[in-house]
Amino acid sequence: MSDDRDRSYTFVESVRRFFWLPREVPRAPAPALPLARVGIFNVAAGAGTAALGWRDQLALIMIFSVLAMVDDVIKGVRYRWPAVVVGLAAAWGADRLVRAVTSAPADPDWADYPALATGSLAALVAFAAITRLPGRQGVALR
What we know:
This protein is an all-alpha fold. It contains 5 helices and no strands. Helix content is 61%, strand content 0%. The two termini are 23 Å apart.
């Protein structure tokens, strides 16, 4: 059986493969350890940027989470597009909830950090949870 990675794809085939994997490609759940590492890095890097007063750089917390999800989508995880949608919706919902519940701290650099950190972690957890849902037997997933 030839390895699919040895074959070079045209641009159109690569784009088609990104959105629609062939039926014979196995789809495993997203690995939890790399997503946990991204989550820990996001929280630590966000705290560091907030402590240094780089308020504009706090958006990197969410960008790294989205990049981690897109990386798993490229690898072809199970339920990849619904997982991204649910992850982004969970991030938005957690962000809005934390902003509504917490009061703004006296230091404006720390005002966005709790909401962005919570939203980032919620996105990664929801993405990993959706990719772990059991697949249907005998039917290839899209």
